[in-house]
Amino acid sequence: MTAFCIYIQCSRFGNSYFYMYPESKGRKGADEVSLFLYHFVHNFLTPEVGHLGIFCDSCGGQIKNATVFRFLHHLVHTEKRLDYVKMTFLIRGHLYLECDKNIDMIDQTQECQIPKDWCQVFQNSHTHALPFVIIDVEEQPEIIKCWTEHLDNTIYKKKLPFQSRPIRELEVTRHHAALVRYRGSYNGAYEQASLLLRGKKGQDSSLKDGEFSLPSAKYEGDLKISAEKYRDLQDLKRFCHSEVQVYFDHLWH
């Protein structure tokens, strides 16, 4: 059974945040990435932080897409939580960041019978000055919100007005209410484009100044796993403890 982990490394303070959950509680797409960024900004960044720099890979399904770009615009212009966000998409094979070193600390030889066991393995992997911060999403699956559907039905275009694949850097700044700036290299001139529908000015007209709406929960209850995987788990569970066998018996399939 798959256990997902989305990792955010805060370079300014040196903290590591791991959002962990099994495939029965969520997927690993743009909605999850947007939610965990939202949770990180509102729960772990101090209020005086107004500029956010994000270094990440170029995975189109998770990060480099309309949902995440519009979500960042929402953070800056609708919620006004940040003044400036810059995303830098690194070249494949050149991700020499702190997060890569920290992942190497995880002891993957540890016995884990259910996805939740990985939370303890990660927690025990770094117990010195700055222990890993583990957010067990399985304990609070309602935090996964449907950002894509929410943004589709507000002030934003459903499709990007530019190709996302060639982009190396993208900026969202408070100085340009409707625009994002982007470029296909790490130097040179920026291009710009509007993510808003024609006639929209960055705020839902049905809301008062300073108000904003948030998306509803994306999933209601557990997610269905494939029948083939369920059969395999039922066959393999005999090697697990009795309480673990109950966990696998209750998976929706």
Structure description:
This protein is α/β, with parallel strands linked by helices. The protein folds into 2 domains: 218 residues, no CATH class; 31 residues, no CATH class. Helices cover 26% and strands 18% of the residues. Strand 7 and strand 8 form a beta hairpin. Helix 1 runs parallel beside helix 2. The protein is globular.
For the structure shown, list the relevant keywords:
globular, alpha/beta, 5-stranded mixed sheet, 253 residues, 3-stranded mixed sheet, 26% helix, 2 domains, single chain
Strand and helix map with partners:
Layout: E1 3-10, E2 15-22, H1 30-43, E3 51-56, H2 66-78, E4 84-89, H3 98-103, H4 116-125, E5 133-136, H5 147-152, E6 169-173, E7 179-183, E8 191-194, H6 227-236, H7 242-249
Parallel strand pairs: 2-5, 3-4
Antiparallel strand pairs: 1-2, 4-6, 6-7, 7-8
Helix pairs in contact: 1-2
